[in-house]
Amino acid sequence: MAEVFNFSAGPAVLPKEVLAQAAAEMQDWHGSGMSVMEMSHRGPEFMSICQAAVRDARTLLNVPDNYQVLFLQGGGLAENAIVPLNLVGRCAKPAKVDFVHTGSWSGKSIKEAAKYAHVHVAASGQAGGFTAVPAQADWQLSKDAAYVHVCTNETIDGVEFHFTPEVGAVPLVADMSSHIFSREIEVAKYGVIFGGAQKNIGPAGLTIVIVRDDLLGHALPICPSAFDWQIIAQNESMYNTPPTYAIYIAGLVFQWLLKNGGVAAQEQRNIAKARILYDYLDSSDFYQNRVEKNARSRMNIPFYLKDEARNAAFLQGAQAQGLLQLKGHKSVGGMRASLYNAMPMEGVQALVTFMQSFAMQNA
Ligand SMILES: *Cc1c(COP(=O)(O)O)cnc(C)c1O
Question: Which is the closest atom of ligand 1 to the Cα of 207?
């Protein structure tokens, strides 16, 4: 098999050890004679897989006892509706929700929430082209909001929060789809944390939701039962058939993280990997990253060739070196290197080596 480094923003690279274990267990999980895909979700085998995944996720993120860890379907985008469906019922009508608009994904969340509540944009990075996180001192938060929504890592714009917002008594909701498990977080500062699995956890089709107990039980009557967090919590994520195989792979990824020192150790590796690429980008006059230094994402690093006419040649040359899926999101163009947990240091080094030689040959 060709050795490649996969920089996709998602679905994205998974640890080789995890894929090897899944392959070895594909047809016969632990002597059961069954593939995980073939198991009843209510049988003892899968129940043990799911319980271990929840337990390990709780350990990795230090989740306090008064929070539930739920597995749902629908991805990050469905949560944009599921969050208001579960939370706006706590407030007097017409419900109001606060948003911090830092890029494409929080922008999509705003549009969706507007179907269920009055949306107030408390701060926006739009005027600056989404190259910064607006300073918290400038956020115009409402006292009576049902919640405050932030996207703590904007996957397309490459903007990451490097602080935990302080929003007082109003529940803080964070879309962490593209950096959950990449860094330590203070779960207790949030009301709800959600993320689609396909960026940093496992296969597409699984969504993880971490929710504080007092935020359960307020779903609007129109909320689909399968998306009512209280019902999901009461049924330990088995109200309907969960994405069983995706949960199994996520569980293997959690074990891999634990074996490698947990999230704190992974965060140090992620800092080191991102530094290599940013340092090179900043030293080069052939490429550039436009995000302010204090808001740069460690996970998703967009960059541009100063001469965009060379984009196609760059991508072709990278592909020939086994450096895959570097094309930037169509809405912003350019390139993007995603350095999720499973991207090894050697991948970043290979990318920078290629970028150096491409710059030299095209100078
Ligand atoms: C990918 C992504 C989403 C959307 O996830 P889907 O699974 O496609 O719904 C939402 N938010 C962020 C920050 C993302 O990176």
Answer: 7
